[in-house]
């Protein structure tokens, strides 16, 4: 394989990573919509859609292995492909969490009386983090990756806000305690999505520098 062909395959890999990111972004958006709108049909669609995300992960994984085996990659290429392999693991888990949130929606009989603004904002912010972390990898933009890492604090603060609202809701109506606990778990999944987006950004930096920021 010539260098030109190898570079073309690297570009295809980046394109498929972005496509997987777009699929997961849709899953996150639909998951919060299903949750706050109590849309069982949409929740079931997201759970089924997780299999498509898994198929995309397998496609990207196969592309990575072919690149590793096609020729002896130089150090930077090796970092790029090995980082992509790590990233799709986090991406697949984000898809799982979107499905987990949808499964919670199907179990809920109602929602505690509270504002859903913070949950919606968690979905928005984690989606932005995911897409920017992938852009950082493709564009080799270390500053954009660092922005994602720093932005995880915003998602953590939103989780704390949701938790405070749910505690207040339980105080007003103790019988809603089980529902509030389920909703808190949904918020926790959004927080984990932020953590996975942060991991992706860290792998993007590793691909560029050879250093993992958490080391």
Q: Topology, please?
A:
Elements: H1 3-37, H2 40-70, H3 75-107, H4 117-139, H5 142-172, H6 177-209
Helix pairs in contact: 1-2, 1-3, 1-4, 2-3, 3-6, 4-5, 4-6, 5-6
Describe this structure in words.
The protein has helices at residues 3-37, 40-70, 75-107, 117-139, 142-172, 177-209. Helices cover 87% and strands 0% of the residues. The radius of gyration is 19 Å and the shape is elongated. 40% of the residues are buried. It starts with a helix and ends in a 6-residue tail after the last helix. It has 6 helices and no strands. The chain is mainly alpha-helical. The model has no long low-confidence stretch (mean pLDDT 91). The longest helix is centred in the N-terminal third of the chain and has 35 residues, at 3-37.
Share of β-strand residues: under 5%
Shape: elongated
Q: Helices and strands: which structural class?
A: mainly alpha
Ends apart, CA distance between termini: 35 Å
Oligomer: single chain
pLDDT under 50 segments (min length 5)? none
> What can be said about the biggest beta sheet?
none
Q: Can you count the helices? A: 6
Gyration radius, to the nearest Å?
19 Å
Order of helices and strands: HHHHHH
List keywords for this structure.
215 residues, mainly alpha, 6 helices, elongated
């Amino acid at each position: 394989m010539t260098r030109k062909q190898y570079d073309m395959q690297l570009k295809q890999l980046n394109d498929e990573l972005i496509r997987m990111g777009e699929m997961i972004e849709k899953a996150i958006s639909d998951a919060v919509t299903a949750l706050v709108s109590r849309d069982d049909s949409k929740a079931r669609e997201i759970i089924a859609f997780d299999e498509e995300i898994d198929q995309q992960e397998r496609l990207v994984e196969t592309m990575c292995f072919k690149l590793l085996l096609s020729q002896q990659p130089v150090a930077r290429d090796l970092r790029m492909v090995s980082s992509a392999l790590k990233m799709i693991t986090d991406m697949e888990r984000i898809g799982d969490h979107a499905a987990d949130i949808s499964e919670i929606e199907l179990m809920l009989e109602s929602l505690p009386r509270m504002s859903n603004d913070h949950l919606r904002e968690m979905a928005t912010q984690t989606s932005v983090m995911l897409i920017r972390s992938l852009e950082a990898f493709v564009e080799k933009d270390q500053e954009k990756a660092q922005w994602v890492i720093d932005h995880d604090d915003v998602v953590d603060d939103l989780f704390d806000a949701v938790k405070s609202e749910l505690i207040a809701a339980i105080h007003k109506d103790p019988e809603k305690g089980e529902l509030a606990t389920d909703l808190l778990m949904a918020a926790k999944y959004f927080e984990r999505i932020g953590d996975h987006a942060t991991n992706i950004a860290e792998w993007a930096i590793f691909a560029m520098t050879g250093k993992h920021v958490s080391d």
